[in-house]
TrEMBL record:
Main location: membrane
Domain of life assignment: Eukaryota
Species the sequence originates in: Cirrhinus mrigala (Mrigala)
Name of the protein in its database record: Receptor ligand binding region domain-containing protein
Stretch forming the signal peptide: none
Gene Ontology, cellular component aspect: plasma membrane
Membrane topology: Multi-pass membrane protein
Start and end residues of each Receptor ligand binding region domain: 1-242
InterPro entries the UniProt entry points to: ANF_lig-bd_rcpt, GPCR_3_Ca_sens_rcpt-rel, Peripla_BP_I
Length: 259
């Protein structure tokens, strides 16, 4: 609600900008005959609508649009791959999350489709598991969320254990993913074997511990700090030097959303 919250900002840019950038990329390389594959969610549908809008009145044409089914079935995916194999379009734009795209690529490998230039959306272009598993993705071009450094993050991650955060469901999920076991604090209804929650992070957990170039986490970090600085400024505002009418400050007992 822009009237109630006029100063609200997104944590990451609107997908509209990504779509505009993809269209500019296609124009830049003079790729005029393209296929588009999207996931069957709002993300994919809105991206396709936006891309169609951006390439209108240009010489870029859509050879096909295929949608990765929400309820994955091999039969439907093979139909999509048949279209890709028979099409003369060698540039394929994919708007999908890595989770939806991974099983699709697993099937793609079996079909001997070659010569594809992949254009990636930010949701999968930096997914290391895809790059490491499928060498044919070498040369993929896409747009990523800006990365940055978060001081102290790695040291903090080493302290995150179910023992320290027993009521945090995300920590429980983390342990299940890393160790394939359920911490004793929540193991009653779990099919996984139980564990103590005191296990130490090992070398194979490097993907979790790698904080060299966080992207989404960096944007969350920036948003939290922006909010914290705003609150700090609001609390320490000096009357006569404030940002509101007549250089006034906010009444701390009754702060409005626009403040």
């Amino acid at each position: 609600d822009r009237k109630q919250f006029p100063t609200f900002f997104r944590v990451v840019p609107s997908d509209d900008y990504q779509v505009k950038a993809v269209a500019q990329l296609l124009k830049r390389f003079d790729w005029t005959w393209i296929g588009v594959v999207t996931e069957d969610h709002d993300y994919g549908r809105f991206a396709l609508q936006g891309l169609k809008r951006e390439i209108e009145n240009t010489n870029i044409c859509l050879a096909y649009h295929e949608m990765i089914p929400k309820d994955y079935t091999q039969e439907q995916v093979l139909k999509i791959l048949k279209v890709m194999k028979e099409s003369t379009a060698k540039v394929v734009v994919v708007f999908s999350g890595e989770g939806e795209f991974y099983p699709f690529l697993r099937e793609f490998v079996t079909q001997n489709i070659t010569g594809i230039q992949w254009i990636a959306s930010e949701a999968w272009v930096t997914a290391s598991i895809l790059a490491e598993t499928y060498p044919f993705l070498d040369g993929t071009i896409g747009f990523a969320v800006r990365q940055g450094h978060i001081p102290g993050l790695q040291d903090y991650l080493k302290t995150v254990t179910p023992e320290r955060y027993p009521s945090n469901p995300q920590v429980q999920e983390l342990w299940e993913a890393l160790y394939g076991c359920c911490p004793s604090t929540s193991s009653l209804n779990s099919p996984l074997p139980s564990c103590t929650g005191k296990e130490t992070l090992r070398e194979e957990h490097s993907a979790y511990m790698n904080t060299s170039s966080p992207r989404v986490a960096y944007n969350v970090y920036k948003a939290v700090y922006a909010f914290a600085h705003s609150l700090h400024n609001l609390i320490h505002c000096i009357p006569g030097n404030g940002p509101f009418e007549n250089f006034s400050c906010a009444n701390l007992n009754n702060v409005f959303p626009w403040q």
